[in-house]
Specification:
The complex is a heterodimer of chains A (403) and B (241). Chain A is built from 14 helices and twelve strands. By secondary structure, chain A is an alpha+beta fold. Chain A is elongated. Chain B has two domains: 26-120, Glutaredoxin, CATH 3.40.30.10; 125-228, Glutaredoxin (3-Layer(aba) Sandwich). Classes of the chains: A alpha+beta (403), B alpha/beta (241). The A-B interface holds A 51, 81-82, 84-86, 89, 123-139, 141-150, 228, 238-242 and B 87-88, 90-92, 95, 97, 105-108, 110, 120-121, 123, 127, 130-131, 134-135, 137, 167-168, 187-188, 200, 202-209, 225-226, 228-232, 234, 236-239. Strand 5 (137-138) of chain A pairs parallel with strand 8 of chain B.
């Protein structure tokens, strides 16, 4: 009868105890794995969204509510275009790009579309550079030097929500509207009875911009006869921290407007992520404690149940170390199997919950497997240490007296 | 003889056309005189515009040798060319632009400027050259030399010759003992007493990339530029990803 044979034999003879012990470990591990998995992908999704959104700050007319960031410019209210130049002249720290927009509904090939007027960066970058009178300050904070030339590609609009140049008679088409109308770069289109040339079709980005047509802001203002106004000014800041500081400065510079950061727009999701992150640590402590207590209790019960067996083993020469090893090895075995099974269950739960509740794709995290198995094994062994030592300290004579 | 007469007539015509153009464009006229022009753009010559204009006028008169001022009504058809040149037709008014003779904008104001602010816009020739380059979105390498015979450092030449930077690099030279540049050197934290040549590397929108000795290589300049492209220590900053 070898060491491992003893363990397997005992497990076969007491399956209920084994299963309940294992279940404790599996459930605890599954819960922790699921929470961590969902939190990880949720944080990634928020980071991707922040990156894809580009603009960190929205300047809107007062009274506009932001229910949907992507459609924040469809409220119909306006503010003077002058604000754009004021922003360009203000030389606020951390402002990388400014993108004013004006949206008007129109028809393209008998299809209703939103014509979005945008101001090419080339038209006011020079104005922003005029503030270089305070030159040659040491690079601090987020006044990043522009090392590379600005990307003139129109597809920049899709990724960075700005475009370097756009002629008064040129338009850019979102991918959806282009495929729906069969239009390509170089084609001619009529909007507001004015002939435009399609300069480029933007790549799909999965937002409302895919269904929009973009033209020069001043052309759209002229065609819509609305005057020198815009619906929204998107400001691309350098960092999240800068964006927070910008809100206060923008409020002072442009009173009578509403200033919203993208962080505020995704605040709910950011808050949930933060909450889940903190809760997962709380759950970790609670579940580890509960699992440890449960395993310790089960192991103590197992020791009591096997007193005669332990006494017999010690009588025939088993050392206390051997007896301790029996229980700890069993605990490690439970921990490994339970950790692995818990990882599988937790990952499955995370994939299901992620898609059903959070609407995002979750995939397995291999690293969590090692953490789950290792952690469950360690907790299981640690919880079994005291009962194992108690078993090792049993007096065989006392055990036999109970026979 | 006929050929010489033709040449003289042609030169005279060109000179007169230039003179007429300068006369028609007050900013060009002031630039021809080597003065910084303060263009006071306004929509309506109301109290606010008058206050701003009066402040500019008084400062310009005090520094008449270096400064001139021109009121520009943005709705005046005669001024349209000037308004379009600076694309300020939609800017908030009143607006003051300080324009150096080389075309660099040395100051932008939307309210009455103080004497100190005004003086700050009367920049030295070297500073104006650097500002013009930066406003044109170019990398500027200012070689501060201890003598006029000193060559441009090899590292600077190599940097300028690099295809990655060639189209966007401007190299300027200035003499360390030029008294007109004293305030500029102070701004750059260059000690004229040290009598050591140095290359000052600047990048748009107005960042001091670094000061380099004449022995600095192209690689060192490139590395400093890319390092300047990094934003800050904020771990959330996308430029640090």
């Amino acid at each position: 009868m070898t060491f491992m044979t003893l363990i397997w034999k005992e497990l076969r003879e007491r399956p209920t105890a084994m299963l309940t012990g294992l279940l404790t470990i599996i459930l605890g591990t599954a819960a922790l794995v699921a929470i961590r998995n969902v939190t990880f992908f949720s944080e990634q999704a928020v980071a991707r969204e922040l990156e894809a959104l580009g603009a960190n700050v929205l300047v809107l007319p007062q009274g506009v509510t932001v229910q949907d960031y992507y459609a924040a410019d469809l409220h119909g209210q306006t503010m003077p275009e002058q604000y754009v130049h004021q922003l360009a002249f203000s030389n606020l720290e951390g402002v990388e790009n400014i993108a004013p927009k004006l949206c008007v509904p129109t028809r393209l090939n008998n299809r209703g579309v939103i014509l979005t007027g945008i101001l090419p960066q080339s038209e006011f970058q020079a104005k922003a550079a005029w503030q270089s009178a305070n030159l040659f300050a040491e690079h601090k904070g987020c006044k990043r030097a522009r090392c590379a030339s600005d990307d003139p590609s129109p597809s920049n609009l899709a990724t960075r929500r700005t475009v370097q140049d756009l002629g008064p008679d040129e338009v850019l088409l979102g991918s959806e509207i282009a495929s729906a109308t069969g239009l390509n770069a170089g084609d001619k289109v009529f909007l507001f009875d004015k002939l435009f040339t399609v300069t480029a079709v933007l790549p799909a980005i999965g937002t409302v911009d895919d269904g929009r047509v973009f033209a020069h802001l001043h052309t759209v203002q002229e065609l819509a006869k609305v005057g020198e106004v815009v619906n929204v000014i998107e400001i691309m800041g350098c960092c999240e921290d800068v964006a927070q500081g910008l809100v206060e400065q923008l409020g002072k510079l442009l009173p009578g407007t509403k200033v919203v950061t993208i962080t505020q727009v995704v605040q709910t999701q950011v808050s949930i992520n933060r909450l889940m992150n903190r809760l997962s640590w709380l759950f970790l402590v609670v579940l580890v404690g509960m699992a440890a207590a449960s395993i310790a209790n089960a192991t103590f019960a197992n020791v009591r149940e096997r007193r005669r067996e332990i006494g017999t083993l010690m009588a025939i020469g088993a050392t206390p170390r051997f007896v301790t090893g029996l229980f700890l090895t069993k605990a490690l075995l439970f921990g490994s199997i339970g950790g692995l099974a818990g990882y599988g269950a937790g990952t499955g739960l995370a994939i299901y919950l992620g898609s059903q509740w959070a609407g995002m794709a979750v995939s397995p995290l291999p690293l969590l497997c090692f953490v789950a198995v290792g952690g469950a094994s360690i907790v299981s062994a640690a919880a079994s240490w005291w009962p194992a030592r108690a078993a090792a300290n049993l007096d065989p004579c006392v055990c036999f007296q109970e026979v | 003889m006929f050929k010489n007469l033709t040449l003289i007539c042609g030169l005279a015509l060109a000179a007169s056309l230039t003179y007429s153009s300068a006369q028609a464009d007050p900013q060009a006229r002031a630039a021809a005189e080597g003065k910084t022009t303060y263009l006071v753009f306004y929509r309506n010559w109301d109290a606010t515009a008058q206050a701003v204009g009066q402040a500019v006028k008084s400062h310009a008169e005090k520094h008449a040798a270096k400064a001139a001022w021109v009121p520009v009504g943005i709705t005046d058809p005669a001024q349209k060319a000037l308004v379009d040149k600076f694309q300020v037709g939609r800017a908030p008014m009143p607006l003051v632009l300080g324009v150096h003779p080389n075309g660099a904008i040395t100051g932008v104001f939307q309210k009455p400027m103080t004497e100190a602010e005004f003086v700050q816009t009367l920049v030295s020739p070297a500073k104006a050259e650097c500002m013009k380059g930066l406003q044109a979105n170019r990398l500027v390498l200012l070689c501060v030399q201890t003598s006029a015979q000193q060559p441009v450092p090899q590292g600077v030449k190599d940097f300028q010759a690099d295809p990655q930077f060639a189209q966007r690099t401007q190299v300027a030279t200035v003499q360390l003992n030029d008294p007109n540049e004293a305030s500029f050197f102070a701004h750059l934290q260059i000690d004229p007493q040290a009598n050591a040549p140095v290359t000052v590397f600047m990048a748009p929108p107005g960042v001091l990339v670094g000061r380099f000795p004449p022995t600095a290589s192209k690689a060192e300049l490139s590395q400093a530029l890319h390092k300047a492209g990094k934003c800050c220590d904020d771990k959330n900053c996308k430029h640090n990803h």
